[in-house]
Amino acid sequence: MNIIAQTPRLLIREFTPEDETLLLDLDADARLTRYVKKRTEQESKKVFKDTLRDYQKQSGMGRWGIFNLADNDFVGVCILNYSEFDSNSIELGYRLHLKYWGSGIATELAQALVSYGLNEIGLKEICAVTHPENRASQKVLFKAGFQPHGRAFWYGEDLPFFKVSHPL
């Protein structure tokens, strides 16, 4: 298991085969998929299988589990990977269990992923999109250094588009 980043409260790491039910349960919770693409159980299983396979590429990017350092509780999932809608863009995304909303965890996570992407693996730019009504995620992106850059038609919708770049 490869650790991607650690913060005062979080461990961001590759999933293991034993973690599959964590992602399936997250995908099955309608409260957590309000602003993101909903998947069937079969689609979620395929995403998990593809995620494990993609670790073999050792690109430094991917989909990872987020765990609470204090008790190893599963917090959620995050990505830092090529966008499926623009192969030239590296997209940051995340979904957290409801009990972690409003606790600053999302900001801590986004800041850690930005630092990892720009400083550890040498990305020049990271982008993100949010649902227009998801003001909380937009605030998180601002706190992590992202700036608005118009809109993008991703995930079948016209969405606010954000970018953060490596300082020169």
What can you see in these coordinates?
The chain is α+β, with helices and mostly antiparallel strands and 168 residues long. It has one domain (3-165): 3-Layer(aba) Sandwich (Aminopeptidase). 29% of the residues lie in helices and 32% in strands. The chain contains four helices and eight strands. Strands 1-2-3-4-5 form a five-stranded antiparallel beta sheet, with helices on both faces. Strands 6-8-7 form a three-stranded antiparallel beta sheet. α1 packs across α2. The radius of gyration is 15 Å and the shape is globular. The termini are far apart. The model has no long low-confidence stretch (mean pLDDT 91).
Structural class: alpha+beta
Q: Give a short account of the largest sheet.
A: 5 strands, antiparallel
Query: Number of DSSP helices?
Result: 4
Q: Can you give the mean pLDDT?
A: 91
CATH class: Alpha Beta
Shape: globular
Give me the Rg, rounded: 15 Å
If you consult CATH, what is the topology? Aminopeptidase
Q: Architecture in CATH?
A: 3-Layer(aba) Sandwich
Distance between the termini: 33 Å
Strand content: 25-35%
Reading side by side through the largest sheet, how are the strands ordered? 1-2-3-4-5
Helix content: 25-40%
Give the CATH H-level superfamily. Answer: Gcn5-related N-acetyltransferase (GNAT)
Number of domains: 1
SSE pattern, N- to C-terminal: EEHHEEEHEHEE
* Count of individual beta strands: 8
